[in-house]
Amino acid sequence: MLSQQAVEKILGIENATLLDPKDMAKKLVITFYPHEKHKVSENILSFANKFKEALKNIGVTIIPYEESLVEVPIKRKLKILFYSIIGKIPKGLKKGKKIKRGVSVITLGEGITGDLAMDNTLGFAQNSVITILDMPEGIGHDTEFHEHFNTAMNLFAYHMTNIAIVIDKEKWIPYNFNASHPIYLIDENLEKNILKGVIPKIAAPIKPPKLSEFKILKEKFDPFDKEHKHITDDFTESGSMLEKTNLYPPGKLLDSLPFRNDFYKWIGKIHLDHRNGMSYGFLARQLPTKLGSVYDSISFKNKFSKNIENFNDFFSHDNENYIIIDTAKGKICIQITPIWVLAQKSGSKKTNINPERDLIKIGLVEGKMLIQIPKRLKITPDYKPSFDTKVILAHAIGNAIIASLIRHFDPNSKFVDNVEERGLAIAHWHGYINPEMIPDGWSVYGENNVPVSCSTPQSAIFALSGKLNKFLEIFNNNKKYRGDIHIEPHHGNNICFDSLKELGQFLSKENTSRLGNHFLNFYKQ
C-alpha cells in the first residue's frame, strides 16, 4: 500500500488532500442565508432545523450570517468596475458586503432574483451554495436517470446553487454536478447520511481543470500518423456500438438551462470554466507505454548502493521517480515513466467525434500535466480538457505501474502486452456494471469510498490508490489481472479495457449496464 503522500506526488497534487469525511467536516464553515423575505414551506423549515443540528453534531462550524460577511476589497471593486465598463461582466452584480471566501452557505426555498445567496458571495467559485427545496413533482424511488439529471441541471441554473437538496415529508435527495441521485429517508441515519453523502461534496466541490494547469506543447500531433492512427480508428470505429448502449446520451448546453438572467448565466460559465455545458462520461485511450524498470531488494542495492528498507515509498534519483511497495514476494521498487492518453475534449459528442477537432492528447510526466492538440487546430476559449482529466491520468499511470510489476514476473502477460504494444481503453459513464456480468480477470474497487465530486484531487487519489491496492490483493494471491472497474459512488464507474471496440461489444450485451444507481447497491458492503 502506497502512502497518500506518495500518490499525491505521482499525480502532481501539491496540497495535502482530505479523504475522511470527519476531517472534512471539521474544516467546513457554514452559514445559513436569511430567508425571511420569501415564503418557505414548513417541510423545508423542519428539515433545515434537523440538518443544522446534524451538522453541528458531526463537527461542522456554523456561524451567524452577519459574521460571514466582509467588505469587498477596494482592488476588487475597481476590477469589477473596469470589467463592467468594458462589458465583460453583465449587469446584475449586487453591491454591499459579501460572504467571505471559503464559507459555504445554506439557503432555503426559491429565493429572490438579485438577492440569492450566490449574489452575496465574494468569490463565485470559492463559496459553495447548498439550497434546500421542496421535492419537484414526479421525482421518486422509480424515477429514471434522465429525469433526475434534467431536474438537477434545471435546479442548479434556476436557483444558482452548487448542491440542491430536495425534500418531502419522508425522503431527501442531494443533487450535485456528479449527476447522481441518492435517495435517503429523513428519519433514518440522518447524521450518517449527511456526513458520508453531503459533506464530501461540499468539501470537495467540482473543479474542472484549466488550461493554465497544463504545459501546452508547441508541437502538435497528427491523429492519423503511424503512432496515433490505430488509436484514432478505435475511437471512430467503436462509436456506433457505444451509441447503441445508451450510456452516452447528449449532454446539456448552458444556453438550454433556465437561468433567470444573463448575469446568472455568466456565473454558471465561471463554475464550468467557461465551458458551453456538461456532457455524460468520457472515452479515452492510453497510448502504448514504455514500462518502468523494476528492482527487487538485491538488484535495488546494486543499483542504488543502499538497502531498499532505507528508502521511503516515493523517492527521486537522477531525475527519475520511483515507488517502493510491499508485496508477498518482498519489497519491490518500480520506476515511474511518462504516460500519454488520447481523450476527447470537453463537450464533444462521445460516440461520434471528428478526430481533427475533438481529440486532445494529455500526458503526465514527473507529476506535471501536459497537453497537445491536433494539427490544423488552434486552442480557442471552448477547447477544454475533460472534467475527469486527473482521473484519466491516474488510471493510465496506475496501468503503467501495474504492467511494469507484472512484466518483471510474467513477461508473457496479456495485460503487459496491451499496455506496451497497443495501449488500453479508459472509459466512464454515469452508471454501474451489473456485477453478474463482470468479465474474468477484471476486479472491482472503490464501492465503499466517500462520494466526492468529479475533477477533484480526491477522485484522482481514490482512482490510483484503490487501483494499486486492489491489484496487490490479486497479485499476492497469484491470480490473473486483466483490468479493473473503479466504482465512484454517487457518480458512476470507470473501466480499463483492451480497446474501445471490445468495450462496445461487452457493453452491448443485454443487461450489462445502465445509467443511474440501479446496480450500485449490489456492490456496497
Number of strands: 26
Give the CA-CA distance, first to last residue. Answer: 21 Å
Domain module tally: 2
Tell me what portion of residues adopts beta-strand conformation: 15-25%
CATH topological fold name of the largest domain: L-fuculose-1-phosphate Aldolase
Instruction: List low-confidence stretches.
Output: none
Mean pLDDT figure: 92
Give the % helix: 25-40%
Helix-and-strand structural type: alpha+beta
Number of helices: 15
Which assembly state applies to the chains in this document? single chain
Q: What is the radius of gyration computed over CA atoms, rounded to a whole number of angstroms? A: 24 Å
Q: Label the CATH architecture of the largest domain.
A: 3-Layer(aba) Sandwich
The order of strands across the largest sheet is 10-20-19-18-13-21-25-24-23
Largest sheet: 9 strands, mixed
Q: What is the name of the CATH class of the largest domain? A: Alpha Beta
* Form type: globular
Relevant terms:
15 helices; globular; Rossmann fold; 525 residues; 32% helix; L-fuculose-1-phosphate Aldolase; alpha+beta; 21% strand; seven-stranded mixed sheet; nine-stranded mixed sheet
Topology:
Layout: H1 4-11, H2 21-27, E1 29-32, H3 42-57, E2 61-63, E3 69-70, H4 74-85, E4 98-99, E5 103-108, E6 129-134, H5 145-159, E7 163-167, E8 171-175, E9 184-185, H6 190-197, H7 199-203, E10 215-216, H8 229-244, E11 252-253, H9 262-271, E12 277-278, E13 282-286, E14 294-295, H10 297-304, E15 314-317, E16 320-327, E17 330-336, E18 339-344, H11 355-358, E19 359-365, E20 368-372, H12 389-409, H13 414-422, E21 425-429, E22 431-433, E23 442-445, H14 457-476, E24 483-488, E25 492-497, H15 500-507, E26 513-515
